Amino acid sequence: MSKGFYKNRRLKSFIFLSACFFVAIVPHVHKIRVYFYFILTISLAIAFYGLIVISKNFQRNKAPNTYTSRLNSRELPLLDILVAARDEENVIERLVERLINLDYPKNKLNIYIIDDGSSDKTPLILDRLSKQFENLKIVSRSPNAGGGKSGALNYALKFTNGEWLLVLDADAQLKKDSLIRLFSFVEEGDWSAVQLRKSVTNTSKNFLTSCQSMEMAMDAIFQYGRLSVSGVSELRGNGQLIKKEILMACGSFNEDTVTDDLDLSLRLLLLKSKIGILWDPPVMEEAVENINALLAQRQRWAEGGLQRFFDYGDQLVTNKIDYLQKFDLTYFFVLQYALPIISIFDLALSIALLDLPIYWPISLTAFTLSGIAFWYGSFCKSEVPVLQKGNLLMIFVSVFYLSHWFLVIPWVTVKMSIFPKKIKWRKTLHTGV
Question: Which of 230, 232, 282, 353 has the fewest CB neighbours in a 10 Å radius?
């Protein structure tokens, strides 16, 4: 797509922010008595659909989409694994060694590590490893090549010839039989793409990593439920498998967004290509370990999440997707992006006007649904435990942890509305511990 396609993001951000402010201020100014009952009705509707989505995970005797069946070597497709790596000296050797040792026919697997302008020892490590392993391919880019992770992946595409692509982060960890089980799932579901459930390797490091572990499980619960109810699901960057011809039909990876996975998810939906969600085996990765890294990561996710709706919103309201999918996207857009902004404005107006908040029933409903998904995601059968020990108190605390989104989303929307934006990708530090 042309650069001009993305020029109106700033204006759209401002319109969205203004609309949220208008929704927040109207009941405070006009004092409409029945408005609160209207909010209660909306809360019940939100609870109803949310419980339907979550309940889809309760309808199995085992964890969602756990696959153990195996295909023989002749049935397995040609697979290319892509990893965009910049300054990953802490984890890159471990990653390569584990990928090389995966159970998969060597003549059907190629591993492409894109050295994306690293300034540490990553290039030296990769050069040494490439001499050891025949199916390890090193692709190098200059530091100022541009396009971030998407640019690195797009550059590597010209060297690939596999039927399928598996995109991993440099800190990714897979079980030895993950690939064979993954393609067993693909064959049964006839998916165009599959997202492995993300799991945290450093769960017990501190409070933040424990919360992120539970948050990832909660996210997988919602994703599987949405897929079951409306056919809507999303990629999560690390551990995403996609058919190469489908990716090329979508226009490859978008270099004009900070979250290529979320952007690609919407383009796949518009192409009517479904994304499967696989619970086990998961892809394991490091959670960020401090609040500064967490907020930087979440700001990027929030910005990318909004960018995709601003970019493709007009297509989403057309007849390219069905009505249930439109409802699902609207539902989660309101809860994830509009509600935090409205709630902050609502609270500020309540304090300024010495009034009571209006929208708290919707926020309470959203947090309650998250808590239920936390509970099920944390305690359902899993090859990689979400919590070191089952702890209901931790679930309540983790629900409170989610409130950081009520600060991140408004702040990011304000920035997108006011400041001219240059696409900037922020690297997440991987320690390898």
Answer: 353
Two structure tokens written together for 54: 């979550």
Dist. CA 56–CA 226, nearest whole Å: 9
For the segment 130-134, the average pLDDT, to the nearest whole number, is 89
In eight-state DSSP terms, residue 32 is -
Tokens in use for 24? 């927040």
pLDDT bracket for residue 70 (50, 70, 90)? low
Give the pLDDT score at 379.
Answer: 80
Which candidate, 198, 187, 192, places its Cα nearest to that of 70?
187
Domains of the chain: 73-210+233-287 (3.90.550.10)
Q: What angle do CA 422, 305, 360 make, to 5 degrees?
A: 125
**Confidence class for position 2, pLDDT limits 50, 70, 90:** very low
Within a 13 Å sphere around the CA of 189, how many CA atoms are in the beta-carbon half? 23
Q: Which long-range contacts (CB under 8 A, 24 or more apart) does 31-39 make?
A: 35/358, 36/358, 39/358, 39/359, 39/361, 39/362
User: What DSSP assignment string belongs to 296-336?
Assistant: HHHHHHHHHHHHHHHHHHHHHTTTTS-HHHHHHHHHHHIII
Residue 128 clears pLDDT 60, i.e. is over it:
yes
**CA separation, residue 403 to residues 150, 221, 336, 363, 367 (Å):** 30, 19, 11, 10, 9
From the list 222, 215, 220, 328, the residue with the least C-alpha distance to 266 is 328
Paired strand residues for 278: 196
> Across residues 406-416, what is the average pLDDT?
96
